[in-house]
Input
Amino acid sequence: MNKKIRDTLFIFFIIIFVITTVLVSLYAAGYSIRRNWPPRFGQLIERTGMLILDSEPDSANIFLNGEKQRRSWLLDIGRDEITTPTKIKNLVPGEYTLRLEKEGYWPLEKKIKIESGQATFAEDFILFRRTTPSNIAICAPQEISFGPEKRNFLVLPSDGLVINLKTETSSTLTDKGAMPVQWSQNGTQILFSDKLINLNGGSTNFDLSPLGDSASNFFWDESSKKIYYQSGGAINCIVTDDKVASTVLSGGTYVAYTVRNGLLYTIETESDKSYLRVYDANTSLLRSSSDLPAGDYIFRQTETNLDLYDKRQQSLYALSDYAQQPIVKQIKPVSSWQWLSDKFLIWHNGFEIYSLDLESGRQDLLIRVSEELTGLAWNRSKNYLIYSSANQIQIVNLNLEIKTPISLLQADNIGSLSLDERNQIIYFYAKIGEEAGVYKLQLQ
Output
């Protein structure tokens, strides 16, 4: 090799070294060379961005614009796939379609934008299991009654069955029928028909049948150890400790009533007019009276809230324990609703799902659907919504800019949708194949 060739190679390697050093330095500093053609020398270099990504569960494969993300084998020998959680550096600024995939889970996509010199956070991904529902009870179509926090038991009133959610075993009640079920605060006792029943042993703690056939519309006020009932046109109560019965209100036409925090709420009719009236439950003194439009009213209580619902007008009245102004908010039309806290409500009118924050007064349309809704549940902390029609259960992540529902299940006669206390299992009624009954489906 003569001197000229050696000098040429020396200069060539010097040039390669300088170019490589510059490129590596630019890469390490977070810059890249634009790939536009023809090149614009004034805009040849641009600063890149970073994507910080996490998912629940982790170890999901990452795709950007359809391309699976891999590490350089020089940087990570033996493991070339990038999975969550991770940081992906040196991304050219622009819009990307981000997709996460994990075996056994539904894939999830989101549009993200990478900004020059900035980190983009995408940490709100929740992947849902692709699982098969399991049957926990064979029964006829009916409303399912869950205990507080959906933790221990559920009751199928029309079939007279109690299902233990921990063991998935069933026991039979002495009565059955489309009657309301009232739960104790700890979820181990129910007032059903005319009996107070202990679900742990199946024993009857209190029998109301001696009150006679005229006694009906029972209401259990656990805190005062009283059971209220209607008989002979009056509202009466019996103390469960000493079995002493007394009349609380009489002389009116009481079409509905309930008791809460020492107040007795009634719907009364006079001359074709309806009134919401609030009495002191101990002294029977009238505290307030509010005019209502003619309707078909029922009361419904949760641990934190008291509601009045007009089935005829599909009007929901949120009530307060402040007796002078009991009606806090009226909403219509409402087909079904749930309180996620004492100040936060979700409901649907058949085809639209809304939320309401009573403290701020903010009302939002969460999603609009094309098939009539039969069920609704929402994990507010992780912000995903589950809803059902008669033939399908779907879930949507409300954190995503493009809210694309995922179909979890297709079946027949779906209803009574409910999310368990840990937000990991949904319970529902459905007919799948030839089996109709209560099913559960694992979400995470």
Q: What stands out?
A: The radius of gyration is 31 Å.
